[in-house]
Amino acid sequence: MEIRKTIDKVLGIALIIIMSAMVLNVLWQVFTRFVIGTPSSFTDELARYLMIWVGILGAAYAAGKDMHVAIDVLPQKFSKETQRKLSITVKLVVILFALTAMIVGGSRLVYVTYVLEQLSPALQIPLAYVYFVIPISGLLIVYYKVSDILKPMA
Fold first, then answer.
1. In this predicted model, what pLDDT tens digit does every residue of 46-56 receive, in sequence order?
2. What CA dihedral angle connects 23, 62, 100 and 127, to 10 degrees?
3. Going by fewer Cβ within 10 Å, which terminus of the chain is more open, N or C?
4. Do the Cβ atoms of 70 and 146 come closer than 8 Å?
5. What is the distance between the alpha carbons of residues 130 and 56, in angstroms, rounded to a whole number?
6. What is the pLDDT of residue 72?
């Protein structure tokens, strides 16, 4: 569990840094548009990419903290053993999604955009860098859910 705490801390700090960069970026955009009169050319695109990273990494963070949206009215009516089985089933479905859509699909997206050398219009950075967050987040979600399944029930 020490590894999980370290991952939680690093991920939390990364999210704070990305969110702070996004706030500073948007403030710069507002300043250049309304004070200087010439809007910065890259800030819109950078804000979009930072929002993607915050959203996708934030989903992994929420999955690790079990803070994701859940409807728990029905499971509460079941016995503890049935609740555990249902919880494991849900975690397995999440793992399956993260493996197929995020890790495999995200890796293919990164690979294709890297091979095609697609660049973002304003920043001129490879789009593979932007999309790389998808498989990273998928790996984190799989780690968290496997860890949750292996953790003894309280």
1. 999 999 999 99
2. 10
3. C
4. no
5. 11
6. 78
